């Protein structure tokens, strides 16, 4: 559910959101709060925002609308906006809130816990204001701006709801650089401006928590020499967490890499310039998202691949790549008994602090392998639960918040741990802590293709492979990590592609501008419109131009001259848009009464436009012109017609 409250008439955004819902296969019904009742909607204890339990709440705010009293200044607008933001922070909504500060407001706000700022910068619109529509119906923006705004909202909502990608695998030749390193040599390949932008983009993705890997058909020495010797390289070898540099199929190499890193292959994406390699990947490892890097306009393409979006970036994200390097050092020594004895493991469990809500919610979305119930939680939901953070440190480093518990009295609702801290006894320490807090504890294991480590530990505790069980405090406190071999590291399941694998390539290449999106939206609407036979098609220039406006507004493939606007699905909002579109097309100002007339057909409205067009001329000039035409002889008329035909 997308619940919208706006300080202006925002209904033109609905078709855009519904278009993206169809593109992404998402059930996103849209509901609107009463007009210009933003603060009331936020505060209403039984209102639309409070009732929303699955989706997002959206605030569309033009700050100047918040202080509509005589003499209001920009400072008054800012004060009312600050009041709204403060009120939002105090509301325990069950879903995230998206806030769009609409033009002409230009100041930038930062996202905060459970409040995400909508940014339309990726979809620039030169002309956003529609003065006529605002005067008639408080619709201040053009259709192009509503398209940009709706797309930005859909993109942010999609990023919040989809499981995140965790690793970017990269081809080398003609992807990271231009040229072939095995033939051109380390300094012979070129890092041109688009490739430099790509490498800088990848470093930013790494900072946001993505792991970087190489998956390329090359001699390893050629690749590493290029990293070391080419002075234009932005990426360095230390930025690469894993690699498969060979002539084996990339699908096989990526699956091996997933097992090596204890990650699901469906959290991987491959960026490659070769469409053939992407096609092979789709056959051999359909769970990996393949993206074909275009030859031109690489920065624009990268900016419109929705799979790269990160609505929340935590400190744990920034430390993830370094943590994986520590983990691999840990794994290299994991067969030594004394290693565990000197590990200096520290596990701290404490009530979840509000500052930890973003990271904890992120863990519920990301964690699949050691997760008893795989229940996904939002920040507001966590605020209402009895939740505990699990922080882990050892002599290799401080891993931070890497686990979560949710208890409902003596029932364990959620127990999850990041795969970065598995295999060293953290889960056993948590079990002993649970035994200290509860005389008995009911717990449940919901088996999935991905949570083999959780299944293994559940069986160790209960003797059951899955299902529900009740343990005593003594049983929980007896949990002990006894052997390095007990640490479960499961290979990812070779499952069918996840439904979240939308056509990101198509979006980035064919739905990345407002013009492209508007054209696709119109085509989508026309495809859904019923086929109708037109008996009396438009004939005059005015009828044809007016029919084009009707067809666009009403999503009809054809318009008859005897059609009535409201019989074809028109309503008050579309009537306002009709008046403004007529003004733009004909430079004629219609009244709402002209449109609302019950017997107004396309032909009659066209006739009215032609009459008003004639009325724009001075009657004396028209009379003089008619008299001049009447005085012409037949030969003069024929000559004038011939001249005009030759001219046109």
Describe what this molecule looks like in 3D:
With 648 residues, this protein is α/β, with parallel strands linked by helices. The protein folds into four domains: 160 residues, SGNH hydrolase (Rossmann fold); 144 residues, Rossmann fold; 170 residues, 3-Layer(aba) Sandwich (Aminopeptidase); 86 residues, Non-ribosomal Peptide Synthetase Peptidyl Carrier Protein, Chain A (Orthogonal Bundle). The chain is 43% helix and 14% strand. It contains 28 helices and 17 strands. The strands form four sheets. Strands 2-1-3-4-5 form a five-stranded parallel sheet, covered by helices on one side. Strand 3, helix 4 and strand 4 form a beta-alpha-beta unit. Helix 5 runs antiparallel to helix 24. The two termini are 55 Å apart. About 3% of the residues have low confidence.
